[in-house]
Amino acid sequence: MTANLLDYDLEGLAAFCERLGEKRFRATQLFRWLHQKGATDFAQMTDLAKSLREKLAGAAHIQGPKVVSRHDSADGTIKWLFDVGAGDVIETVFIPETDRGTLCISSQAGCAVGCRFCSTGHQGFSRNLTTGEIISQLWFAEHFLRQHLGREDRVISNVVMMGMGEPLQNYSQLLPALKVMLDDHGYGLSRRRVTVSTSGVVPMIDRLAKDCPVALAVSLHAPEDTLRDNLVPLNKKYPIAELLQACTRYQSSAPRDFITFEYCMLDGVNDQPEHARQLVSLVQAHAAQGLSCKFNLIPFNPFPASGLKRSDMPQVSAFAKILLDAGIVTTVRKTRGDDIDAACGQLAGDVQDRTGVEQRMAAQRQGMLGGIKVVVAKGMGV
Ligand code: SAH
Ligand code: SF4
Questions:
Q1: Ordered domains of the chain (ranges, CATH)
Q2: Are 345 and 301 in contact (CB under 8 A)?
Q3: What are the tens digits of pLDDT across the range 286-330?
Q4: What parts of the chain have a pLDDT lower than 70?
Q5: Residue 197 in contact with ligand 1 by CB distance below 6 A
Q6: 54 CA distance to ligand 1 centroid (A)?
């Protein structure tokens, strides 16, 4: 099997060129062909010598994702399902907004963390994605969208690692992919516009700060350890105090001056006024040590196996008000792509479980009747 060139960041590609007996600077040309122009074939790379193109064709290939399906939502959201082999399917979602285009990328097939409110978590862990499988979601979507929309300029301005999987449990493959996103010869995205979302893998938050500080979102979901242990099992290993200390440390290298806390609103579970008051105390205690944060309240996207319900809108608003009154910047995430199951936690596992179609549709109807369309601030909130 030859090398997939999408597996390399620029440094890795330079090393690959050296192994082929080529000058390292050739890698920059090659990298630009791959990521800026979306080349799928060496023959397209007309400014490379024919002899080099032939050499490359013998030693390497360009393997993009295998599309299983594409779903277009009425609101412009597009969801792709990609086959990554052995029955595993991952999901990528494009969310257009007036001032930006956000791509939500997967980092693993399944997830080992097993959060109670997440359909990926219920599926269990299958495997880590390779760097090529991570970055090719952006590679494919960016070049597809340019063609689809008839645009020559960049379409995707923001990337959020909020698809399937826990990115910080696949750190070695994630890191080169982040570098390609940021590289001026790659996608040239600013660090502020690339967000890693984590359920709280504390040592890897510190690694990320050192290796590649991008915007950080932390999935908090509870104000105290007993409840968080139950919702996000990783909390037993890295409890809230440790997690918030890691967030505080991260801030000195972070490209934004705040950490985003995601908080999935679960009816009767973590959405009571008391929980909001506990959050205020928690944040205030850590603010004294230098933590600066904002909250993004996510209306839960229900799926039958969870046994959980979405908080109703007055509950979400009351919760947000307590945080806001305490001076904490708080937004409520607008749900996008409801009609195509593209919202968080409604990931490709659903598609694999074809027997669940009826149940899913019922849950979706219920979700839509819930009518959580209110926008305090739009967007992915990052
Ligand atoms: N594993 C990482 C990133 C992927 S999940 C993490 O947990 O942060 C991305 C976000 O979607 C997380 O904040 C997660 O808590 C949220 N999420 C998962 N399932 C959801 C659901 N059913 N409804 C709403 N948000 C959900
Ligand atoms: Fe994994 Fe994130 Fe889902 Fe938790 S919410 S199971 S960490 S993908």
A1: 3-61 (1.10.150.530), 66-377 (3.20.20.70)
A2: yes
A3: 999 999 999 999 999 999 999 999 999 999 999 999 999 999 999
A4: 343-382
A5: yes
A6: 44
